[in-house]
């Protein structure tokens, strides 16, 4: 009878040790996964902010290019600039 009681005690100790080991392992995996998920979330938020900034800058660049195009079209379409003739070594160059 004493042998059976001793075996049950050892079995309980081994089961408790196994349970602690499993709980610690799962807990550690959970913490690592939660940390990884948090870091990934932070990176996604940073990426979203950078994409928003990029989009804003691209929109401003596009608007600036349209304004520049309008100004160049205005300058080239009106006749406010005189023709300039430059004589270089006996040749005439018109612009």
Brief account:
With 95 residues, this protein is mostly helical. The chain is built from 1 helix and 2 strands.
Please supply descriptive tags for the structure shown above.
95 residues; 1 helix; mainly alpha; rod-shaped; two-stranded antiparallel ribbon
Description:
The protein has 1 helix and 2 strands, in the order H-E-E. It has one helix at 2-77; strands at 85-88, 91-94. The protein has a two-stranded antiparallel sheet with strand order 1-2. It is rod-shaped. It starts with a helix and ends with a strand.
Assembly state (oligomeric)? single chain
Globally, the shape reads rod-shaped
**Termini gap:** 117 Å
Helix content: over 70%
Helix vs. strand class: mainly alpha
SS element count, helices: 1
- Poorly predicted runs of 5 or more residues: none
Question: Which series of helices and strands comes N to C?
Answer: HEE
What is the averaged pLDDT score? 90
Largest sheet: 2 strands, antiparallel
Computed over alpha carbons, the radius of gyration is 39 Å
Strand content: 5-15%
The neighbouring-strand order within the major sheet is 1-2
- Strand count: 2
Question: Which helices and strands, and how do they pair?
Answer:
Layout: H1 2-77, E1 85-88, E2 91-94
Antiparallel strand pairs: 1-2
């Amino acid at each position: 009878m004493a042998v059976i009681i001793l075996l049950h005690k050892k079995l309980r100790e081994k089961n408790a040790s196994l349970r602690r080991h499993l709980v610690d392992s799962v807990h550690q995996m959970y913490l690592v996964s939660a940390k990884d998920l948090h870091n990934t979330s932070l990176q996604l938020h940073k990426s979203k902010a950078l994409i928003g900034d990029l989009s804003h800058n691209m929109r401003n660049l596009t608007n600036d290019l349209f304004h520049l195009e309008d100004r160049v079209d205005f300058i080239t379409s009106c006749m406010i600039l005189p023709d300039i003739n430059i004589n270089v070594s006996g040749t005439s160059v018109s612009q």
